[in-house]
Amino acid sequence: GENVEQHPSTLSVQEGDSAVIKCTYSDSASNYFPWYKQELGKGPQLIIDIRSNVGEKKDQRIAVTLNKTAKHFSLHITETQPEDSAVYFCAASGGSQGNLIFGKGTKLSVKP
Amino acid sequence: ETGVTQTPRHLVMGMTNKKSLKCEQHLGHNAMYWYKQSAKKPLELMFVYNFKEQTENNSVPSRFSPECPNSSHLFLHLHTLQPEDSALYLCASSQEINVGGLNSPLHFGNGTRLTVT
After folding, report:
1. How many CB atoms lie within 10 A of CB A42?
2. Mind listing the pLDDT tens digit for each residue in A5-26?
3. Nearest to B108 among A31, A44, A94 (CB)
4. Which A residues 18-77 touch B at CB under 8 Å?
5. Given this model, what pLDDT does residue B16 score?
6. pLDDT tens digit string along B76-109?
7. What is the strand order of the sheet A72-77 is part of?
8. List of chain B residues whose C-beta atoms are within 8 Å of the C-beta of residue A30
9. Please, is A18 exposed, middle or buried when counting C-beta atoms within 10 Å of its C-beta (0-12, 13-18, 19+)?
10. What are A63-77's pLDDT values in tens digits?
């Protein structure tokens, strides 16, 4: 079945810097890769997703890149702000196991 | 408001108690899910319901019993739990279930923080 590895587990950046979180997946048939943001006391919220027919997608300060050959995808946050501080989860689905398989999460801290 | 509402937000129960978690979605979705979130572990899928029918039970112990009376409501009945069952239990919904390459984003509730003493 699918296995998703996420790195780093914690990330601390200065306000205004960029943050990058990376994930790898094992099932080459996976074709849907969402990213979720979980703030303290709340459930995960979808922030951006990408499907296997594109290599990059942007939404304001957030971008996701996908390398299907290498089976990895990354979340890029530019001009980070303190409100970006949260736990971020990557996930993959669409392979032999239909349901979303999540990474372990990255705790991002943005220092003012 | 997320569109998926879970109650209660916090629950403390003894190992011999019986309690239920409730989830309601206001998004018109057809699929509903229960996930368990423990510290430093990936989200664990527990149960999947599609149009009120259970389509997946991810080897969950029988002390967890789900119920889906309609496409908008989902319950998780708890009995004789163990301390290791303490976790955040998340309900989610999606327009369709993710099979055969059909990928429908999940919408999560804010969870029930369960503590088993």
Report:
1. 14
2. 999 999 999 999 999 999 999 9
3. A44
4. 31-32, 34, 36, 41-46, 49, 51
5. 87
6. 999 999 999 999 999 999 987 765 455 678 899 9
7. A4-7, A19-25, A72-77, A62-67, A56-59
8. none
9. exposed
10. 999 999 999 999 999
